[in-house]
Amino acid sequence: MEQIIIHVDMDAFFASVEIRDNPTLRGKPLIIGSLPGKRGVVATCSYEARKYGVHSAMNIKEAYRRCPQGIFMHPNMDKYKAVSQQLHRIWNTYAAAAEAVALDEAYLDVTKQAGDMEGARRIAMTIKRRTREELGLTCSVGVAYSKTAAKTASEEKKPDGYFEIPTPRDFVALMMDRDVRTLYTVGEMTAGKLYASGIRTVRDIQEKQELVRRLLGKQGQWLTKLAFGIDDRRVTPYRPQDAKSIGREVTFQEDVKDYQLLKDVLVLLSLAVERRAKRYGLYGS
Asked: What is the tens place of the pLDDT at every residue in 26-37?
C-alpha cells in the first residue's frame, strides 16, 4: 500500500468540551454560537440539537425557531484552542506528517509507523482511547489509502465511529450510488450545475466524464478522478505562511447605515489583516 492515512475528526467539538466541563448539559440540545435575538450563526451543536434540524453555519434565528428549548451559549475560543493543542499533541505522536485542517480535525500519514492496515487500525484505536481517557472527549476516525477516502471513512460512523476504506475499489463500491455532494469539494453551487445536467450520483460522473469536465473545467477533471477513487494528495503540515488568503470579519448586531462608522470598522479590520500578514512575512497582490 503506497499510503496509509488516518483522518481524525472530533464529535461536535465545541459542544462536547462544554458538556465535559458541565455534565448538567449532557443529553440536552446545546447550541454554540450567537444568542437568540442576536445576529450570527451556529458554530456547532450537540447531537441532541441536530435532531431538530439544527446544524453548523445555520442562522441563529432559524436555529431558535427549530429548537426554542435549546441551550444557547457563546463559544469560548480560548478554551477550545487549548484543548485543540492537547488533541494534536496526542495525534501527532503517531504520524510521520500531520496536517491540521481545523482545531478539531487532522490528517495523519502513518504509512511507515503502521506498516499495513492492521497496524493503522491499532494506531487509530489508540488515538480514540487516549482522546477519551486523557481529555474526556470522543472522536471519529477513518483509515484509508487517500485523504479523501480517510475523511469519508471518518464521517461514515459518527459519532465515536471507526471505519476503513483500504483501496480505491472499496471507495468506489461505497460511493457509487451516493449523491454527488458526498464527494470532496462539491458544494451547493457545483451540485446545482451537475443536477441541471442530469448528473446526480457518483455513478453518473463516471458515465458522463466528458460532460463533467466541460461543465466544471479543472474541478471537473478532479471530480472524474475522484469518482474512480483516485486521490494522490500527500499529507502536508500546515504553515501559516502557506495561506492563500487572510481575512478578518465582524458581525453587526443591527443594520448599520452610518457610512463613516462602516469606514472606520473597515480600517480596523484591514489593520488586523495587515498585522497578521506581517507576522508571517506575507504580501498581498
From this structure: 999 999 998 998
